[in-house]
Amino acid sequence: MLRIYVDAATKGNPGPSAGGIVLVGDRLHEQIHVQLGECSNHEAEFKVFIKALQLVIEKDLNEQTVLIHSDSKIVVQTIEKRHAKNPIFQPYLYTFQQLESSFQLLLVKWVPESQNKGADTLARQALHKYQ
User: Fold this and answer.
1) What is the span of the domain harbouring residue 100?
2) Which residue numbers delimit the RNase H type-1 domain (predicted)?
């Protein structure tokens, strides 16, 4: 099983944004930070979520059970309900649905911020680095 932890950081809302991704699996522990451009904090959470899934596919790690953790209730609820009330989030949901078909089994789980410190730290470091 591959576990993914994602989080985003934004300076301002909207403002410059960055994300942190932690991949944990058998003999794997990788920490990645990414720049996400100018966006709102919720958009940044969606962007890092999508980026993490794209990275897993690029690394050919999607043929196993994948559990992705996010502390964003908006992202997790949108994915679970398969519906985005906010039209700005609809393209992210659509992209997720396209990517989901590339996975053997993909599970999404909300975690409290206290259980997502690694990804949070990476996101904050990335935000500071890219400014």
Assistant:
1) 2-130
2) 1-128
CATH of the domain at 59: 3.30.420.10
Please, are residues 44 and 8 in contact by the beta-carbon 8 Å criterion? yes
Closest CA to 116 of 75, 82, 79, 78: 75
Closest CA to 20 of 56, 44, 54: 44
Report DSSP state, residue 61.
-
Question: What pLDDT, on a 0 to 100 scale, did the predictor assign at position 125?
Answer: 94
CB 1 within 8 A of CB 67: yes
Distance CA 36, CA 92 (A): 14
Report the number of distinct structural domains present in the chain. Answer: 1
Q: Note the pTM of the prediction, 2 decimals.
A: 0.95
Residue at 24: amino acid letter: V
